Amino acid sequence: MAVQAWRDNARCVGMATEIFFPESLTEARFDKALSICASCPVKDQCLMLVIELDDVDDRWGVFGETTPKQRRHIRYELQRGLTVTQARKKCANVKR
Ligand code: SF4
């Protein structure tokens, strides 16, 4: 599979993987990754790459400024016909 060119512009390039896959079970465990993703110029591409996975395989990590639980909700909203932007907005307050 070809590596997508947009990945060159990702804010997380060179950062520790553990930031995005925290082992801690605290409520705040995703905060650092989410704050990095918030200003990433390719967060929609990143999100859609993971959204295309089967949700059964998408249980860990922060991608595209979303947690696994938020992505489950976003998948549902996309299937209902919302755009990525609309689905993000609607699921922004889903508890992590
Ligand atoms: S949105 Fe994706 S590509 Fe961008 S910093 Fe977050 S994990 Fe990395």
Note down, in words, how this protein is organized.
There is one protein chain. By secondary structure, this protein is an all-alpha fold. It has one domain. It contains five helices and no strands. Helix 4 (68-79) packs across helix 5. The longest helix is centred in the last third of the chain and has 12 residues, at 68-79. The structure holds iron/sulfur cluster.
Short summary of the structure?
The chain has 96 residues and is mainly alpha-helical.
Proportion in helices? 40-55%
Number of helices: 5
Bound molecules: iron/sulfur cluster
> What string, H for helix and E for strand, traces the elements in order?
HHHHH
Main sheet: strands, sense, barrel: none
Please state the overall shape, judged from the principal axes of the Cα atoms. globular
Integer average pLDDT: 91
Beta-strand portion reads under 5%
Q: In angstroms, what is the radius of gyration?
A: 13 Å
The total tally of domains equals 1
| Class by SSE composition | mainly alpha
How far apart are the first and last residues' alpha carbons, in Å? 31 Å
Give the low-pLDDT segments: none
The count of strands amounts to 0
